DNA sequence: TCCCTTCAGTTCGGTCATCGAACCGTAGCT
DNA sequence: AGCTACGGTTCGATGACCGAACTGAAGGGA
């Protein structure tokens, strides 16, 4: 039916969600935003996405109110998750946990812990110690045993040590 | 880097997950499988996906152990979710709930209830009455107030009345 | 001041995926 | 024998994505 990327005939909120978030690279861009990446160049270097595609994805994410673009210096911008973007965390986490379980041959790549009590989260996002599901701002990420140092861009290097989600990753 | 659909340079289980489940139409195919659709023709009629694309998606889903293909009559097949496929439910549900919240102008399209106690699930998938997160086999789906009858294929019609997930949708 | 680098894109030609429509073979029904 | 349904396959056209090169503004160093 539809031409290109939308699912026109579907009266379904999953389809509506996928029209934004289901395009190639978009989820990985958002993952990096949760990890604390904020700048065009860092996203590009970490993802190896064609620049034109990255530009396109960022503008649609901004247009749809998932990212906010601010000029931190003349001509240079930062992209930050809005509340609408933050609300995508459960979906993104669930998908990555499925990947950890079913498609991570050498063991887990990353471990997410509730920062307040330093307990590893369950695949559902629940902190077993507190009985709560912490929001991304309360989550720390550490590399797991299955993570291999394949990349050497600045973002990949920074992600090799413990880091609080949503806080700026680069010095 | 990668050509086409994979995210080769990323040592990340989200990327690994998206290589399978992130292609166009794949999530909607899986959604229909959770809803109880099992046959090629029903999927095609409900999704308006090009037949060649549907064939390709189904074979990769089978190859990756997410769907199981069985011959229910000479030359005719049924596709059913395996355990690995069932494990995608939290991700699929989370994404559709995000769509319900942020991209459903006329109200919710579908309501999911815990069949055992007939209580509507929270966006997290939790049943507030039981305090548990029911698996898809224990969930009923009913049309919500925002759902409009735009399609008239057999699947869409069947989905207009209450239905238990994973049970065959067509008579 | 001049040169060099960084950032954040844009432009472009080529390749790959997806599109709609038509075609095909098997099986059951009448 | 003829018709329909199912589950695909084939094909040419269109659109998305690819890598590489180019741009333009700003900052830093000599």
UniProtKB/TrEMBL annotation, chains A, B:
Keyword annotations from UniProtKB, A to Z: DNA-binding, Transcription, Transcription regulation
Residues in coiled coil: none
Limits of the HTH hxlR-type domain: 12-107
PROSITE patterns the UniProt entry points to: HTH_HXLR (PS51118)
Domain of life: Bacteria
Pfam families for the chain: HxlR
Any one GO molecular-function label of the UniProt entry: DNA binding
SUPFAM superfamilies xrefs: Winged helix' DNA-binding domain
InterPro entries (UniProt xref): HTH_HxlR (IPR002577), WH-like_DNA-bd_sf (IPR036388), WH_DNA-bd_sf (IPR036390)
Name of the molecule in the record: DNA-binding HxlR family transcriptional regulator
């Amino acid at each position: 039916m539809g031409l290109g990327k939308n699912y026109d005939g579907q009266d379904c909120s999953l389809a509506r969600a996928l029209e934004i978030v289901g395009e190639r690279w978009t989820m990985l861009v958002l993952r990096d935003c949760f990890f604390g990446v904020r700048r065009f160049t860092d996203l590009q270097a970490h993802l190896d996405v064609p620049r034109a595609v990255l530009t396109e994805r960022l503008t649609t994410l901004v247009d749809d109110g998932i990212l906010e673009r601010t000029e931190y210096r003349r001509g240079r911008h930062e992209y930050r998750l809005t509340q609408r973007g933050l609300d995508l965390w459960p979906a993104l986490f669930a998908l990555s946990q499925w990947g950890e379980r079913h498609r991570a041959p050498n063991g887990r790549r990353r471990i997410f812990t509730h920062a307040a009590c330093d307990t590893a989260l369950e695949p559902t996002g629940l902190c077993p110690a507190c009985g709560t599901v912490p929001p991304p701002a309360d989550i720390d990420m550490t590399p797991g045993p299955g993570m291999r140092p394949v990349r050497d861009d600045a973002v990949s290097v920074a992600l090799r040590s413990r880091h609080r989600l949503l806080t700026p990753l680069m010095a």
